[in-house]
């Protein structure tokens, strides 16, 4: 479950750039994002709203909205290029090789079809070898696997008869129906109660261990990263600003943004009862990014420094470790934020 | 949010409970520990080793079958069933009426000029001395056929093109939307008259022409709905799981559009019946001496008739009103029926 240079990545994203044409001009929502995903690995992707996390994942599947397109870079699945692939080819990848789980299980299921029928759609599409009976036993097997009790009865029910957590389980079952090699989970627990969140995270982890699927977990919750991720990307304004193992990021953030995110979390030993720390300012409007380093206006390190007028490269700091800040060495020396 | 678990109770549960009667939840394999991991072989060979309950057909027979549930939701709207019964009676009357009331609707009898109702002519006679009841029955065939067939044709065309435009977007949408706007800017009656003049007046021509002219309402509603539906999470999720365009369109979008489209179609029926009346009045509908409800109304337009001879215009007027009302009630019930979220209350 660790990523080393010896394992061949199942998914490889290089310099991915996505642009949207809007009334306000062209917006570059994803700007040169690169990462590798090893088989069976869990990669966390963190960032504020609008940092390009979800767009990156949608772009991988070729699901950008009509006004968006991939303007550069490559996405390779087992070495096969997906950027520019035909819709037909992408359709055969979606749900079979790469599956996706969406944020809000209340809206992501078709309200007028039974759970069984919805899982069956995906099976019919991709598991041609299964006959009707085979598909039925597979549906029950999947519902059992996502710990939906009384699967036979539940399979015949409609989404409105399911609770939020149960619906998300059903979504996971749908996504796992054809044993995909990669599961993209776009904030799968955001819309759920805290207790249910933990159950779903556990479930995703268990399913992943059982199936060996690689998981990309998009979240803005650092707690989720700490809990499930082997490795994490921190994204800001469409760029990757820092990567590393979850432990490394938490112990020794090398980008001021990561440091700010960590400092913004409430902690149990925060006894002075004061306000939470926050990163000053707001995420930049992607249509009008600041020149140079995008984080410059909000960064306490940048004040009065000329280096920041130039966008920093993602500097490799070690095995799977990189940060896009001119002063990453300074950060390494400075003490950890309280 | 969670609906009460009504699937266990209720009359329709035999399919749901029987299969589980054998291996109960306790005696069967533990659903969690007993399943093979997802990577394992698919257990197809040995039915006993699979999860219990598979004897029932999972995909075909939910505890309450969808059709049965839809019927229940249909009935939940209390005027739906009366509407259905009344419309059935009206249709039966139009179809079978001539067998029971064997009077020639086209027999002209100058001696019976505008006679009030009498035992010989229960609904009186018209300006040509023809029996109003017989003409009402025969005219119902024309009005119902044109109203239903043209509205269904128009809605069908509208849904098809609207879903296509909303789903494909781009130039397909631009093209179809412009065509729609052009159609709407035509004065319908004049276009229909032109077509009728070309192809000759007949029932079928009228249905086709009205159907092809009136699809714009269904088109616009369907197009708008499709555009918002295709961005909905549930549709994006299906696309994200690899569904083909046709599947997304006909399985996930069109069914969701059917409800509103049904409402449009039912609303259109009354308009179509009136269009048919206008055309018939202009001599481009059903050729005389055949009758239709609209023709009968049009022939009763003089002030004298309206004031003192209600037997000539009340019957067709009431027939149109009853038909349109019952169709609207059915439409409302249908709207509930196609949407499982309705009828929960």
Structure overview:
The complex is a heterodimer of chains A (338) and B (345). Chain A has a domain at 107-179. Chain A has helices spanning 53-60, 87-93, 115-126, 132-145, 151-155, 164-176, 194-211, 222-228, 246-251, 256-263, 328-333, and strands spanning 11-22, 25-37, 42-46, 68-77, 80-81, 98-101, 182-186, 214-219, 231-236, 239-245, 315-318, 321-323. Chain A is an alpha/beta fold and 338 residues long. Chain A has an 8-stranded mixed β-sheet, with helices on both faces. By secondary structure, chain B is mainly alpha-helical. Chain B has one domain: MetI-like (MetI-like fold). Chain B contains 13 helices and no strands. The model of chain B is unreliable at 1-54 (pLDDT under 50). At the A-B interface, helix 2, helix 3, helix 4, helix 5 and helix 6 of A face helix 1, helix 9 and helix 10 of B.
